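Fig. S4 source data, part A: sequence.
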Amino acid sequence: MRLLRSTDLALRVLMRLAVAGESTPTTREVAADMDVPYTHAAKVVAELQHLGLLAARRGRGGGLALTGEGRTASVGAVVRTFEGDGDVVECEGATPCPLHSACRLRGALKRAQEAFFASLDPLTVADMVAAPTGPVLLGISRRH
């Protein structure tokens, strides 16, 4: 399974903010730290804010901060939210699969997808920044 770019970035933004301490980096700073376009980071930050996982303040002294809910958020839940409920394969698209009515693969892939999400459910954002990851993230953020 391959994650969407927005899912990957959402997880990296949450991890970056989890090691920010008292600092409140801006979306531009986080985008630079993650080496992604600002516009893409801004969309992801807006969605994370909407989900209550981070707080954003504008203006002088503003920036981004992880909320308590963001720190304890399940990685599986974040991935599910960004990836959506779609099937791993598209069986009913513009050209429906001729096996659709008798296919056992679709169900097996759905179960595998759910097992993937379930394996991420116990992992929290705080867990993801435990050593050695946290110190590496701090090093990245200090480059700029």
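Fig. S4 source data, part B ends here. Strands lie at 54-57, 63-66.
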